[in-house]
Sequence to fold (231 residues):
Amino acid sequence: MPMLGLLAMLWAGAAMAAPASYQLDPVHTRVMFTVEHAGFSQAIGTVSGSTGILEFDPDDWRSARLEVSVPLEKLDLGDERWNEATLARNLLDATQHPVATFVSTCIEPIDAQHASVYGTLTVRGVSREVKLDVRLNALKRHPLPPFRRTAGFSATAAISRADFGITAWKSVIGDRVELRMEVEAVRSRTGANGSAPDDDRQGDVPNIDDAGTADGDSLPPLPDPAPEPTP
Fold:
């Protein structure tokens, strides 16, 4: 019995230490990219609406896991004709490959707030390893309804478009593409046993009700992240 009790305690401790599960908030997650435009400037574009999952324990970055889907049809360069040209077959070919994906493979912590995240980026059907330089901005309950536990990150990377088979318009479009990502991920509503996580039921925001914030401001509830699509 003592041995069984010890094993049970060890199992419970391991379960408590497991990374928490989050869903990316597509409203507050955005990818920005810059690429040289004929030597005159760095053209700036964004892609909104990314979805995905994050498993994260701030005390153990190495156990983190990230999977992201980026909907290329939401690409915006500030001009409809440029958007269409970028999504065309000779560049991103978004009709055949409407989604870019990133799946982490290795996390190397730097300090409590920074890490190098390595993973597989797939664009236009071509997969390459990419390194993201990631900073943890905050991990706490959101101050607005529905007051969900939220993790916020900033990340940067640089890729070669030729590495992904995107080689058209070499005289006009540069090869180096710089990426910047702003990510918010919301704690999944239920834990492993189907109950709400403890830090969603009680936490670090005092005197809050469903009608407003701790400062008394009356604000409408924010939408929950879109559910993950069923394969």
About this structure: The first strand starts at residue 20 and ends at 24. The chain is about 10% helix and 45% strand. The two ends are 44 Å apart (CA to CA). Residues 50 and 70 are 5 Å apart (CA to CA).
